[in-house]
């Protein structure tokens, strides 16, 4: 299976670089189990889900993970905290004119908080902070909005690049679970009143989400590692949902990867699990838990597009994307959404 199989043309003006005034004001393209697609408002999700269905959401919180600073020589640097190892040490990406070596000191923010590069871990730097990382992020950090926004983070992103249901204690992601950004409290309450249940998993999104696939044959691609947790309470609700014949709807590719990682770790069984995942879902994958997926429109040739194509199929998805372009849907993190049913064929 070739990378070029997942390419499509996207006009630049369809990239949503700012959110709409209302979270739930987006459009929704539904791809049914037969591969047919239907145009909706996102609030029509109320009619597309049934009493007894289960929404699975990712409750992670986005860190203000992007830090700007200087080297000892005065050259500008940018540090992106990818993963905290303890209160003072993290795996980081570092942008600099020259790659810093082990032992190099860097200085963050206006107060020049010192941090030390201790070495490398794969393609990341191991960085020791002189102060607790979360306090440094809180004082000097910026939200790591996607690079295709082509702008710096602004005040509006502080609210809108977080979900309304994030757990404040789970602040560890460098990107939002963007399918969930469409849900406001009013819509969640209406879904609950209809009898649609919700539950949570946690997957701390890494910067690898934005990394392009660099192999022509996609089966040679290696996914970045992310930590996730699928608790027993969530598993109990999933089993109850399936037992009564209702659907499990993953909200976003991160929730999907968490659920399917748990199943793979348990030999295909629906069971609780916590750990690091590098699961790569592409066409041919047999889903163990997820029946339907709410997701945004993704970048060409991305692993996220491949995952969505696995649930429906590549031809269905690319046809729907062509329709979305023609109908001027908004793409990517602040864009419109899709509801994708598992294909019958």
Q: What's the topology here?
A:
Layout: E1 27-31, E2 37-41, H1 45-48, E3 54-58, E4 61-62, E5 66-71, E6 76-84, E7 89-95, E8 105-108, E9 113-121, E10 124-129, H2 133-140, H3 155-160, E11 171-173, H4 185-194, E12 197-203, E13 226-230, H5 232-243, E14 248-251, H6 253-265, E15 273-277, E16 292-296, H7 303-311, H8 314-326, E17 337-341
Parallel strand pairs: 1-17, 3-12, 3-14, 4-11, 14-16
Antiparallel strand pairs: 1-2, 5-6, 5-8, 6-7, 7-10, 8-9, 9-10, 12-13, 13-15, 16-17
In percent terms, what proportion of residues is strand? 25-35%
What is the makeup of the main sheet?
Answer: 9 strands, mixed
Structural class: alpha/beta
Helix content: 10-25%
Q: CA-to-CA gap between the ends?
A: 18 Å
By CATH, the superfamily of the largest domain comes out as: QueA-like
CATH architecture of the largest domain: 3-Layer(aba) Sandwich
- Tell me the CATH topology of the largest domain: QueA-like
Number of domains: 2
| Strand adjacency order, main sheet | 2-1-17-16-14-3-12-13-15
Please write the CATH class name of the largest domain.
Alpha Beta
Low-pLDDT sequence parts: none
DSSP helix count? Answer: 8
* Mean pLDDT reading: 96
Subunit structure: Monomer.
Keywords: Cytoplasm, Isomerase, Queuosine biosynthesis, S-adenosyl-L-methionine, Transferase
GO biological process, one term: tRNA queuosine(34) biosynthetic process
Family: Belongs to the QueA family.
């Amino acid at each position: 299976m070739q990378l070029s199989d997942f390419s499509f043309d996207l006009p630049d003006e369809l990239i949503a670089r700012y959110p709409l005034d209302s979270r739930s004001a987006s459009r929704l393209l539904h791809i049914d189990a037969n591969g047919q697609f239907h145009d909706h408002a996102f609030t029509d999700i109320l009619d597309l889900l049934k009493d007894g269905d289960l929404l699975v959401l990712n409750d992670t919180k986005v860190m203000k993970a992007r830090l700007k600073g200087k080297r000892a020589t005065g050259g500008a640097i940018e540090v992106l905290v990818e993963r905290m190892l303890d209160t003072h040490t993290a795996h980081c990406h570092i942008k600099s004119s020259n790659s810093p070596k082990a032992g190099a000191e860097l200085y963050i923010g206006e107060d020049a908080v010192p941090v030390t590069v201790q070495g490398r871990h794969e393609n990341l730097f191991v960085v020791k902070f002189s102060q607790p990382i979360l306090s440094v992020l809180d004082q000097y950090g910026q939200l790591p909005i996607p690079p295709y926004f082509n702008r710096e983070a602004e005040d509006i992103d502080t609210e809108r690049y977080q979900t309304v249901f994030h757990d404040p204690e789970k602040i560890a992601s460098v990107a939002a679970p963007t399918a969930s950004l469409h849900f406001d409290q009013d819509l969640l309450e209406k879904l609950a009143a209809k009898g649609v249940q919700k539950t949570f998993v946690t997957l701390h999104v890494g910067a690898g989400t934005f990394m392009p696939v660099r192999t022509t044959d996609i089966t040679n691609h290696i996914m970045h590692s992310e930590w996730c947790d699928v608790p027993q309470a969530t598993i109990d609700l999933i089993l109850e949902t399936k037992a009564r014949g209702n659907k499990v709807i993953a909200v976003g590719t991160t929730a999907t990867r968490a659920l399917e990682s748990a199943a793979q770790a348990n030999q295909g069984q629906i069971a609780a699990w916590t750990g690091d995942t590098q699961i790569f879902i592409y066409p041919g994958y047999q889903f163990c838990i997820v029946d339907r997926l709410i997701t945004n429109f993704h970048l060409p040739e991305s692993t996220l597009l491949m995952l969505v194509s696995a649930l429906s199929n590549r031809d269905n998805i690319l046809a729907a994307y062509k329709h979305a372009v023609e109908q001027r849907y908004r793409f990517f993190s602040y864009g419109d959404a899709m509801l994708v049913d598992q294909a019958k064929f």
